[in-house]
Amino acid sequence: MRALAVASGVLFVSSLAGAQAGPATTPDPLDRMRSDLRRLVTTQEAHFAEHAAYARTMQELAAAYRASEGVAVELANAGPNAYGAIARMAGRPGSCTIAIGDVGDGAPRTDLERKRSPEGEPTCDGDGQTERGMFAREAQARAAGVLSRLAKYQERHFGRTGAYAAEVAALPDVRLPSTITVTIELATATNREPAFLAIATDARYPGFSCVLASGWARFPQGAVTQAERRHAGGGSTAVCDTFR
Questions:
Q1: Got the DSSP string for 8-77?
Q2: Alpha-carbon span 173 to 94, nearest angstrom
Q3: Given 25, 61, 164, 210, which is the most exposed site by the fewest CB atoms within 10 A?
Q4: Considering all CA atoms of the chain, what is the largest pairwise distance in Å, rounded to the nearest integer?
Q5: Whole-model pTM?
Q6: CA distance linking residue 32 with residue 70, whole number of Å
Q7: pLDDT digits (tens, 9 = 90+) for 174-229
Q8: Are 91 and 72 in contact (CB under 8 A)?
Q9: DSSP track, 8-20
């Protein structure tokens, strides 16, 4: 009986192992190309740290970087402080691209859809993303980030002066991207405690906004976003429309 039980156990384990084993999952071609581009960025940052400039040719990175099998990666419009890169897979139409630094109009576009993406974000033909959608998400994230930084410096300003700043200009450490505008509204003097409302908009996406309220107060315009009327709480957390 014991021998039978042991044999049965071995058979069960073997069957389970066989059921779990299977052919290795083939990586998605787009994932492979995106991964190769991200590894290139890492290699380029190491090169920059050593040489105070990015490599302008792939030959300069030959000792430190190799693309995955079947993928060819090339640099595009590379300079000492910025570059683009393109990845293509043998036998597969289209490409993936990425840009680092201020490449300007030299940012590479994908072969088929002719799209580019925000800095540091790979984009590929066939990935279901649109150029406008990617840049809209970036703009939304930047607007929210600006408000988060502003809230931090507002608290420092309050600690020094006993009041919140009514204008961004009074907060010199808050630097705004060229397309973003921030307005500040202070709570009225009748409010129990000091509070402020900050609204961020991006000129490229009119009708959309992010808002942040610190403290609890009633504001004449309401602490809501422009498009979706999303309400900002009083916890210094930015709330945004979905930019598009």
A1: HHHHHHHHHHHHH--PPPPPPHHHHHHHHHHHHHHHHHHHHHHHSS--SSGGGGTTT--PPTTEEEEEES
A2: 43
A3: 25
A4: 88
A5: 0.75
A6: 10
A7: 999 999 999 998 876 666 678 899 999 999 999 999 999 987 777 766 789 999 99
A8: no
A9: HHHHHHHHHHHHH
